[in-house]
Amino acid sequence: MKKIVFTLFLGLVSFTVKAQDVEVILTSGKWFIESIQEKGEQPEMASNKQDEWLLFTKDGKVEESHFGELETFSWNYDKLKKMIKISGSETIFHRIIEITNDKLIVEVVEDVKGSADDNVMITYIK
C-alpha cells in the first residue's frame, strides 16, 4: 500500500511541475541567492540574502543585484535545453536543475558544447 501511495504522490508531483510554465515561475518574483556550490564542495551560504537576487521580467529583462550594485541584462529560456540564457557584456547559460514556485537550482554553464569542469550550482529561493 505504501508503494502505491508513494507512486501516486510522485506522479502527482511530476504532473504539477510539468503543467506549470517555467517562464511564469521565473517571472513571479525576486529570486534570492541561498547558496553557491563549486565543484561538488559543500554549499556556501549567501552572507546577505537581501543584497543578492535576480528579478526576471516578462519583457526579457533580468535585474541582478550583488551587494547593492544593480545591473540589467536580457534573458530568454530555451525549453528544449532547459537553459536560461543571460546576455550582457558576456553571455552566461543557467541549466535548470530544479524549479518550483519558491526554489530554483541552476548550474552555471559557460561552454554549452564542452564539459562543465568548473561547474557552479546556485540555489535561489523566494
UniProtKB/TrEMBL annotation:
Keyword tags: Signal
In the record, which residues are listed under signal peptide? Answer: 1-19
In terms of superkingdom, the source organism counts as: Bacteria
Protein known as: Lipocalin-like protein
